[in-house]
From TrEMBL:
GO molecular function: electron transfer activity; flavin adenine dinucleotide binding
Stated family: Belongs to the ETF alpha-subunit/FixB family.
GO terms under biological process: fatty acid beta-oxidation using acyl-CoA dehydrogenase
Keyword terms of this UniProt record: FAD, Flavoprotein
Cofactor: FAD
Domain called Electron transfer flavoprotein alpha/beta-subunit N-terminal: residue spans: 10-210
InterPro entries associated with the record: DHS-like_NAD/FAD-binding_dom, ETF_a/b_N, ETF_a/FixB, ETF_alpha_N, ETF_asu_C, Rossmann-like_a/b/a_fold
Source species taxonomy: Bacteria, Bacillati, Bacillota, Erysipelotrichia, Erysipelotrichales
Co-factor remark: Binds 1 FAD per dimer.
Annotated protein name in UniProt: Electron transfer flavoprotein alpha subunit
Pfam families assigned: ETF (PF01012), ETF_alpha (PF00766)
Species name: Catenisphaera adipataccumulans
Record flagged with keyword Transmembrane: no
Record-listed FAD binding positions: 231, 254-255, 268-272, 285-292, 306
Amino acid sequence: MAKFEEYKDIYVFVEQENGNIAEVGYELISEARKLVATIPAMGYKVVGVLLGNGIKDKAQEVIAHGADKVIVVDDELLKDYSTQFYADALTQLINKYKPDSFLTGATPLGRDLAPRVAARINAGLTADATKIEVDQEEAANGVALLDVTRPTFGGNLFGTIVCKNTRPQMATIRPKVFELAPVDESRTGEVEEFKPTWTTTEPEVFVEKVIEKVKGDVDITKADILVGAGRGAEGCLDLVQQVADELGGVVCCSRAVVEDGYMDKDRQVGQTGKTVRPSLYLACGISGAVQHCAGMDKSDMIISINRDPQAEIFSISNMGFVGDVNKVLPLLVESIKAAKS
Ligand code: FAD
């Protein structure tokens, strides 16, 4: 078992792509600052962890956003995200520096990386969290135990999870949950480089093609016809777009699709997205969570396609098709074309 007294500070994984830092990293640093401020007697620092290639010059930006220290792992093998090399580097880094807690954005990358590292180091991980607090009773005894809260049962309930028996306490946190603190360019901090030891430099997985996500260039609130993509349609977004094109409509989506990185937030319908009221809302592979329906249930006509006959979306639909979107959408494209000719 880990000797807890050796573990210290709150570490934040600062995700970047081509040197562009994902905002969620700064949101977590901002929140980590608030957390360490609740336990001043423990003298905890906020440490940013930056992995990539040619990214050393980004460390000061991380400090300006609130980190006391940044550990940079700059290596050619980390140029593009690879589960294998990122997990290898991070596991070694955690074993060396011994963070008391380790926070990662619940982005597609973070959701891939954090559980793998947690499994390797045998640490507890709370996934998809929306709130973090330090248990003040434990803090009085010199233990910075995190109470990490996450939604469950489709967001209808919240559960608080505590990783008492392992270190670091790991969590992935949804983007846009925590506010960004103001940037202070005059902040100073320590920058340290860490060199991992590679057991192999042969990649297990190769990237064949990078598909650009749909960029936010339309206002979904103004569209008369909306074709909504849910997690069930993530594998056939080209078909969803084809249906929208044939209908003269616009593609929008559920929050799951935004969180999984397929579409921009400005396409999101729902409680934390946009409220829409088109003549037609065609929901493809959307379960019908209350938070989604809150943004589209006033549409004049709702038609849904879902392979689960019990899906909640059917309860607010004027018409529903039980089936696989991969099969139904091509038929729909053909029949719209036929109807138009
Ligand atoms: P899932 O719930 O994963 O559902 C996927 C559906 O696709 C399932 O019903 C499945 O049967 C179906 N499916 C799978 N494969 C296929 C296939 N091949 N063919 C046909 N059907 C298939 N969500 C929003 O959308 N907007 C918001 O603004 C929003 N705000 C939120 C705010 C809070 C505070 C919280 C806690 C949550 C919020 N959510 C929001 C998230 C919401 O609770 C749901 O998690 C989300 O809407 C689920 O998206 P989904 O239906 O695409 O994915």
